[in-house]
Amino acid sequence: DGGITQSPKYLFRKEGQNVTLSCEQNLNHDAMYWYRQDPGQGLRLIYYSQIVNDFQKGDIAEGYSVSREKKESFPLTVTSAQKNPTAFYLCASSIGYRAYEQYFGPGTRLTVT
Amino acid sequence: GQQLNQSPQSMFIQEGEDVSMNCTSSSIFNTWLWYKQDPGEGPVLLIALYKAGELTSNGRLTAQFGITRKDSFLNISASIPSDVGIYFCAGLSSGTYKYIFGTGTRLKVLA
Q1: Which of the two ends of chain B, N or C, has the fewest CB atoms closer than 10 A to its terminal CB?
Q2: Could you give the 3-state DSSP secondary structure of residue A94?
């Protein structure tokens, strides 16, 4: 089945530690995205990538980093510089050349204490 | 960052009733998307709209791309308990990969 995989579903970390969230897609999509969702809130864009080895900051990139070394993978690192990292993180992808339909993964809930 | 205004923010309805919600923007979009999100899950794409005035259905769901290209509407007919969730709209401008999301409409269906 084609789709987007995020792992793990739940992640717990101590404050001050960096943590990397995984996102893999087998849809052959060029563009990939990371969003953050807080309780009762909409989606806020962290980073996006239109093509391998290229990515752009979204609206709330501070304290986060990404890489795009392979088309199917777009990992997100939440660094210790992120002041309020506890949130629900969603990865998404779209075809790219016709970037109309965006599909989401199941999400990772990160809790930092 | 910019967010779209969705209305209403939340609504309780009786099972079997029709539901309407809308999304408005200060910017023009070339694409509107509608999603449903269940608690703790990723949003699921319901309907995609590509042309002003376009009306598209997916089962009991019907969405419209507003003529001004600054708004979109979603209707759910004969609601059932599994329609409960949060509905998001998203807009995309020409020449960009950056989707703008609405604030969400939380739907609760009373059996």
Answers
A1: C
A2: strand
CA dist A58 and A66 (Å) reads 11
Mutate to test the interface with A, among B23, B32, B97 (most CBs of A within 10 A): B97
Q: Place A100 in a pLDDT band, splitting at 50, 70 and 90.
A: confident
CA–CA separation, B6 and B17 (whole Å) = 20
Cα pseudo-dihedral A109, B39, B87, B13, rounded to 10: -160
pLDDT digits (tens, 9 = 90+) for B50-75: 999 999 999 999 999 999 999 999 99
Residues from chain B that touch A104, judged by Cβ atoms under 8 A, are 35, 42-45
Please give the radius of gyration of chain B, using alpha carbons only, rounded to the nearest integer: 13
Question: Is B88 in Cβ contact with A102 (below 8 Å)?
Answer: no
Q: What is the pLDDT of residues B21-39, one digit of tens each?
A: 999 999 999 999 999 999 9
The partner residue sitting opposite B97, judged by closest CB among A6, A42, A99, is A99
Q: Do A100 and B92 touch (CB under 8 A)?
A: yes
Number of neighbouring beta carbons within 10 Å of residue B18: 12
Beta strands in B18-98 (DSSP E): 19-24, 31-37, 44-49, 55-58, 61-65, 71-76, 85-92
